[in-house]
Amino acid sequence: MTTVDRDKDQFGSNLDLIGRDKIDDLEAVLSFVGKYDVEGFHRVPDNCPAESIEVDQEQVVIANAEANPAQQQWDEAALAGTALEKWDDKRFIEFGIQNQNWLLSQFMHGEQGALLCTAKIVETVPWIDAKYYAATQVMDEARHVEVFSKYLDEKLSGHYPMNAHLGLLLDDIVADPRWDMTYLGMQIMVEGLALAAFGFIHMMTTEPLLKKLLRYVMADEARHVAFGVLSLQEYYKQLSAPELRERQEFAFEAAIRMKDRMAMQEVWERMEVPTADVVKIMRAAPEQDDFQILLFSKIVPNLKKLGLLDAADGWLRTKFTEMGAIAFEHLSDSTEEEDAFADGSPAERQVV
Ligand SMILES: [Fe+2]
Ligand SMILES: [Fe+2]
């Protein structure tokens, strides 16, 4: 249709609208083919604005540091004698950029693990309703892998391979043929930790695109974790004491692997900081430890709800007490807050 100047209530003529006077003018109809797209391809002007948020990593590092001063404090005494003592501002900013690259890379690898695990749950879980649900989760996880990998490719400046501790954990989860171990490892431990980590980064980052995409991913993860708790709850009630003990050990091992991963060893290596220096700096940064413990804020209440904290004379309770994470047992579990991040929910209105 061509645009014509005309009065408001005057209809366009056939010539204006369809390029010919007579509707059944066969010669005019046949005259288009072969002449319209003479170059073999067709360009269509879009004429509407598309949204694209540019990410300047350096600016994000600076803005995040200003917005979260407590996160950025370095202990001067701990830096003395280490490679960091001679770092200038530029080097610290580079460190911040590498942190972003590392963190988002690990998110992406974790999501790939979730994709494989949920596909496996579709195969192994005995109930048809759980298979249906797991199938929707497979689709969610594929979307998460895609969004994180796109963000890495298009907005950040480098990838990191999967962290060795995360790799060991995912190997254990994927290799176990028992459906409930896949649930415990992925739905309760990995996704529970992811939910807390996404929440923390969501709260801390000043980068609007990351904030937005994390919010969408969190809405999905909250549902996935709740599904895991609901599915395992009944099943664990009929397990024997030795069987429960095996699950407690599995949960403990997973927790330690996830905590170890947060040392971000690959970033230090890329920044050419010797291991002895890293140990010195990290030992002097108790707030880093607080952050690592915060990552268990979703996991501990869920393990409690499943009865795993208190089975076998409270073996797992003792372990989480040693780790300093037992206080989280009083927080609400994921079945009580599965919709917390859904569109329009009170929490969502607060965080956006
Ligand atoms: Fe996910
Ligand atoms: Fe998930």
Description:
This protein has about 350 residues and is an all-alpha fold. It has one domain (about 60-350): Ferritin, core subunit, four-helix bundle (Ferritin), CATH 1.20.1260. It has 16 helices and no strands. It has helices at about 15-20, 25-30, 55-65, 75-80, 90-125, 130-155, 165-175, 180-205, 210-235, 240-260, 265-270, 275-285, 285-295, 300-305, 310-325, 345-350. α6 (about 130-155) runs antiparallel to α9 and α10 packs parallel to α15. The longest helix has about 35 residues, at about 90-125. About 30% of the residues are buried. One fe (ii) ion (FE2) binds near residues 111, 114, 141, 144 and 221. One fe (ii) ion binds near residues 141 and 191.
Provide keyphrases for this structure.
0% strand, 16 helices, mainly alpha, Ferritin, 352 residues, single chain, 65% helix
The largest β sheet comes out as: none
Count, helices: 16
Number of beta strands: 0
How far do the termini sit from each other?
42 Å
Summing up helix and strand content along with how strands pair, one would put the structural category as: mainly alpha
Shape field: globular
Helix content: 55-70%
Strand content: under 5%
Please write the string of helix (H) and strand (E) elements.
HHHHHHHHHHHHHHHH
Q: Return the domain count.
A: 1
Mean pLDDT: 87
Note poorly predicted spans.
Answer: none
CATH H-level homologous superfamily name:
Ferritin, core subunit, four-helix bundle
Please give the radius of gyration in angstroms. Answer: 27 Å
**CATH C-level class:** Mainly Alpha
